Amino acid sequence: MNQSLVIIPTYNEALNVDSMIERLFALYPDISVLIIDDNSPDKTALVVEALKTKHPNLFLIKRAGKLGLGTAYVEGFKWALLKKFKFIAQMDCDFSHDPKDLGRLITALYDGTALAIGSRYSGNDIRTKDWPWYRLLISLSAGFILRLFTGLKIRDISGGFKCFKREALEKINFDNIISKGYVFQFEMTYKVHAMGYDIVEIPIVFSERVYGKSKMNLGIVLEAFSVMFRLRLKKLLNQLN
Ligand SMILES: Nc1nc2c(ncn2[C@@H]2O[C@H](COP(=O)(O)OP(=O)(O)OP(=O)(O)O)[C@@H](O)[C@H]2O)c(=O)[nH]1
Ligand SMILES: [Mg+2]
After folding, report:
1. Ligand 1 pocket, mutate which of 8, 11, 12, 74 (most atoms under 8 A from CB)
2. Ligand 2 centroid from CA 206, angstroms
3. Ligand 2 centroid distance, CA of 72 (Å)
4. Distant-in-sequence, close-in-space partners of 90: CB < 8 Å, separation ≥ 6
5. CATH of the structural domain 4-236, one choice from 3.30.565.10, 3.90.550.10, 3.30.70.20, 3.40.50.2300
6. Of 45, 53, 105, 108, which has the fewest CB atoms closer than 10 Å, so is most exposed?
């Protein structure tokens, strides 16, 4: 795992970040972890700073304010490519993604696969724990519409637990990314697929966050559809990457 990096964007995750970092290093002692914090008012970054002395493979990028999940990942991916990591993973800080599953995502790329997605819906199953019905309805309907419009066969098209092989990330023009927020997950998967790479879905159980406040809102859904139409148009005009 010493060629692997996991990027974790944080906004107000002071209650989760400590245990998440400790858990990751306990499971994968030679992995690297990059936290991208958007000046969280709850001082998430201070918790991370304190852990840096204990974990030499822990890195922190502090940004000036809440600039969105998509831009946080772009910054993380650019950093990872400068550092020569071979496997670059991403996950949430709130334990919705189980750190125990991370190893399965990374090892799924040991063959020719370019992207492994921790999938809540593969095998026509639903593995979300404690999600309110409306949340599941939004996620499933958004997935259905995204698949219909793009032809993508991925069941979990908006999931945020993933691992990319370096080669695929190197081919993405990050200055051309249009998503600012959560729809970034879809945009990246769509681009990797459009480049002809193999994508695999690894079944995971997704649990509702225990600590911290949910950030889901209507704006997120609206951004998703706006990005979907723009990406589809770009694909038709051959300007996707
Ligand atoms: N740096 C940064 N991180 C963010 C931002 N928005 C969300 N995050 C982090 O991205 C990850 C996913 O966000 P979540 O809020 O868990 O998204 P979600 O799972 O769809 O919704 P809830 O868990 O219900 O809030 C978490 O680690 C957040 O702290 C942001 O604008 N900037
Ligand atoms: Mg969450």
Report:
1. 11
2. 9
3. 15
4. 6, 7, 8, 9, 73, 76, 160, 161, 162, 163, 164
5. 3.90.550.10
6. 53
